[in-house]
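Human: I hope this is not a bother. Would you mind checking the protein record under this note? Thank you for your patience.
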Amino acid sequence: MSDLLRTLGAQPLGYGPCRALDHGKRDPIVTSIYLSSDNPRWMPKTEADLQAAVDGGLFEESHHLDLKKAPNSKGDNKELARDLSSFAVHGGTLIIGVQENKESRTFELAPQPLNGLPEKIEQVARTIPDPPLTILTEEISAAADDGTGYLIVHIPASPVAPHMVDSRYFGRGDKTKYQMGDAEVVALHAQRRNTETDTLTLLRKEMEENPLRDVGAQSHLFLVAQPTAGRRDMCLPITGARD
């Protein structure tokens, strides 16, 4: 069984009916793929994994998945920042190095230079959206071994969404991003305030449970940390699982 089928697991992971790819006994039967920040069950490890998904017609831009080439200009960086910000509302995955053929309405591999690409994407996420975004990236080298390849960019659902780019807020629809209206922005800001209130409640709880209550006799610093993202494999040493 190939790495692609192993990473898929035993359950179908897409929305709607599953589609199958069967090129004979040697090749795996790929049912569907579903890439999202909350449930990134299918994780390509090699260029062959990506090609298998292309051959099976399984790539489809969705609420949680987008496919692009690497940004090459300031305008591209702004567009990338809008894409990342739109995914930050509910979480999503961006694959750089897979592009759409507009005429045939299919996708094809387009390996991109990897040197400095992860740093560039992270810099865009950290400097253009307001507030800054947290992302996770994973590289896949091309079989040609020429310094090109693919970058998997995971955008976790952000506790401080929405994120503004050029004084506008963006959300993600079924397949593309859109500029959010006032009502949606107000609702997300209210959700952010509730999260901040929860954090303050936890902080007060820590202060109340402090065994050394006399803060005047000894300086105290109280901290409550809430992680915004974690690598997929961070708990493997604890669980003993392979993936």
Notes: Residues 182-208 form the longest helix (27 residues). The chain has a mean pLDDT of 80. The domain at 3-180 is CATH 3.30.950.30 (Methyltransferase, Cobalt-precorrin-4 Transmethylase; Domain 2).
